[in-house]
Design goal:
With 282 residues, the chain is α+β, with helices and mostly antiparallel strands. 29% of the residues lie in helices and 22% in strands. It contains eight helices and ten strands. It is globular.
C-alpha cells in the first residue's frame, strides 16, 4: 500500500483524512485488574468501573495514558531529531507557551498555523501523536470491556512503617476483576507518519514482552497483561492499513469496497525493523 507520509513529512492538509491504521490486539490478563471509580459504595471502599450492564472495563483513556507513558519513557532509543517531552515535566507546549501563544494570535489560516507549528519543533513527536493542549490526538483507543468477568473483594490493611505491622483500625478493601474471555484492545491512528508508527511500536513491543500493567495496584501484582497466543496466526491480532489518499480510494472505502490491507504481527515487526534501518522514521 502506498504511504502518503512515507518520508516522515506531514500530510498535505492536516484536515484531510488520507490514511487509517487500525490494530486489534487480543490480550490475556494474567492477574486481576482494578480500575476504580473513585467513589465507594455499600459493598466496597473501591468498586471497579463497569459498563451500564455491569461488565468491568478499562477506559480507552486509561489505555491511551499507559501507551503514551511507555512511548515517552522509551522515545530516547529512537534518536529523534526533536526530543520527546515528559508530561510530568510540564510538557513541550508549556516550555514554548509564549511562542505558541504568539502563533495562535497570528492572522493566518488554520492550515498554515498547523504546518508552522509542526515545523517549529515546539511540539514533540509524542505530543504530535498522542495529543497536547495545542494539537489534537491522532490515536484513539476503545474501551477494553471484560466479558464474562468475575469480581472479588480483596481485603487490605495499612502497614505501619515504623513497626512493620498492620496499623490499628486502618483496614480497607477494594474490588478486582478477572477476565474469563481474552479481551482485545482496539486502536485507530489517522494520518500516521513513520515516527508515529515507531513511537506506538515501542509501546506495542513493551506489551508483547509482558511488561505492561493496567489499572491501579500494579505494584501489588494487579493488571499484568500479555499478548494472547503470542499474537500468532490464530490469535486474532490484526494490523489493517486503509489508503484514503485519493478521492477514488476514499469513495470505494466508504462504499464498503474493501480498500484495506490486513497484516500479521510478523509483518508489523518487519515494518518496524525497516523503519529503524531507514533512520528512525526521520
Amino acid at each position: 500500500m502506498s504511504d502518503p507520509t512515507q518520508n516522515g513529512a506531514s500530510v498535505q492538509d492536516p484536515i484531510q483524512l488520507r490514511r487509517i491504521d487500525e490494530w486489534v490486539l487480543p490480550v490475556t490478563l494474567n492477574t486481576a485488574v482494578h480500575i476504580g471509580t473513585g467513589v465507594e459504595n455499600e459493598v466496597t471502599d473501591a468498586p471497579v468501573l463497569t459498563t451500564a450492564d455491569d461488565r468491568p472495563l478499562v477506559p480507552g483513556s486509561s489505555l491511551k495514558g499507559v501507551f503514551r507513558s511507555i512511548s515517552e519513557r522509551l522515545a530516547h532509543v529512537l534518536n529523534l531529531e526533536i526530543e520527546s517531552c515528559r508530561l510530568d515535566d510540564g510538557g513541550c507546549t508549556q516550555t514554548h507557551k509564549v511562542e505558541i501563544r504568539k502563533l495562535m494570535e497570528k492572522n493566518i489560516s488554520d492550515k498554515e498555523r498547523f504546518h508552522e507549528l509542526l515545523d517549529s519543533g515546539w511540539v514533540c513527536p509524542t505530543c504530535q501523536l498522542y495529543g497536547s493542549g495545542v494539537m489534537a490526538s491522532k490515536i484513539f483507543f476503545s474501551d477494553l470491556v471484560l466479558d464474562n468477568a468475575r469480581t472479588h473483594i480483596r481485603q487490605g490493611v495499612v502497614i505501619d512503617r515504623d513497626t512493620g505491622a498492620a496499623a490499628a483500625g486502618l483496614k480497607y478493601d477494594y474490588e478486582i476483576a478477572y477476565a474469563s474471555t481474552p479481551p482485545a484492545i482496539h486502536v485507530r491512528m489517522e494520518n500516521a507518519t513513520p515516527t508515529d508508527h515507531l513511537l506506538f511500536g515501542l509501546a506495542l513491543q513493551y506489551l508483547y514482552q509482558g511488561s505492561m500493567r493496567l489499572g491501579g495496584g500494579t505494584s501489588r501484582g494487579l493488571g499484568e497483561v500479555r499478548p494472547y497466543r503470542a499474537w500468532g496466526d490464530q490469535s486474532g491480532f490484526r494490523w489493517r492499513e486503509t489508503d484514503l489518499s485519493t478521492s477514488d480510494a476514499a469513495l470505494r472505502y466508504f462504499l464498503k469496497d474493501q480498500m484495506t490491507v490486513d497484516h500479521t504481527w510478523d509483518e508489523w515487526n518487519e515494518k518496524m525493523i525497516q523503519l529503524v534501518k531507514e533512520g528512525n522514521g526521520k
